[in-house]
Amino acid sequence: MQPRNLITVRNLNPEEINHLYELFKGFKEGRKEVLGGKGVLLFLESSTRTRLSFEMALRELGMDTYYVGKGESSVEKGETFKDTLRTLHALGFDVVVFRVPFVLFPYEPYLNLGISLVNGGDGTHQHPTQGLIELFTVMEHYPSIEGLKVLFVGDILHSRVFRSSGELFRKLGARLGVCGPATLIPSDLSPFGEVEVFDSVDEGIEWADLVVYLRLQEERFKESYVASKESYFLQFGLTRERYKKLKGYFMHPGPVHPYVDVDGDVLYAEKSLVSEQVRNGIPTRKAVIYYLLRG
Ligand code: CP
To answer: Which CATH class is domain 9-128+279-294?
Structure first.
């Protein structure tokens, strides 16, 4: 049997998403599974929550874990990513969770190398498990995703989280909106179906049932996309005044830039799902690993 992979949420259908949600709930309620085997985290870009929650998920599933960080792999000496995956397979790893600064697309050449691939974030492309965390957290708090108006605010252009979360929400029937500096809104949003584009975040917040704030991903900026962080916060940020006007919850996948994306005083307030998103990282990632390795 070929190993199963999660590179992009594009390949997940609503049935699989709902199955993963059932697994997620089971793990959250204390379901125990022992998979055994070995997992490696290959993180060529920095991370706190993805790295740690994958590591905890693998260990709680009874797998031995190994970590290779930025500057520690032979990728930095010119080994191709494909040869690195072959090497990990030859060393007996069952699964590799990778985070890389580049876009793994097309990804087909990397499949079927004998090891399951789990994308923990590749460049501006995808962050599938973060998308699932957003979706599952919302499913716990809203009666239905069908027709839910979800507004993404900030740096949409560079956001792999938007590409994963937005796609998942859309697959389950949500309506999508985006808002941010015109320089940070992709010119083509057609892959996400009909998307409402708001110039004014205040109008967007009035429209939305749920607001997802995104970080300015300056590490991917090739030029200056915003005049200043102060003006960005005033124009688009979740200020205390805007927080009061939220009809529902707000989310942020993290890491957060307080007083740039969100006012630090409301970051963990009543309408925030930020801490819950982090907590849901472990059962979400357990569900994904279990599904890929056991079906
Ligand atoms: N949301 C997210 O990917 O956070 P980390 O970069 O800390 O893993």
So the answer is: alpha beta
Q: How confident is the model at residue 84 (pLDDT cuts 50, 70, 90)?
A: very high
**How do residues 254-292 score in pLDDT, each as one tens digit?**
999 999 999 999 999 999 999 999 999 999 999 999 999
Taken in order 182, 252, 40, 12, the sign of the CA dihedral is negative
CA of 174 to the centre of ligand 1 (A): 24
With a cut of 80, say whether residue 221 has pLDDT above it. no
Residues in contact with ligand 1 by the CB-under-6-Å rule are 47-50, 121, 127, 130, 253-255
Ligand 1 centroid – CA 74 distance (Å): 23
Atom number in ligand 1 closest to CA 46: 6
**The domains spanning 9-128+279-294 and 130-275 adopt the same CATH topology:** yes
Substitution candidate for ligand 1 out of 44, 48, 160 with most atoms within 8 A of CB = 48
Domain boundaries, the chain: 9-128+279-294, 130-275
| Nearest ligand 1 atom to alpha carbon 51 | 8
- Atom number of ligand 1 nearest to Cα 45: 6
Return the CATH number of the domain spanning residue range 130-275. Answer: 3.40.50.1370
pLDDT computed for residue 223 by the predictor: 73
Per-residue confidence (pLDDT) for residue 1, from 0 to 100: 62
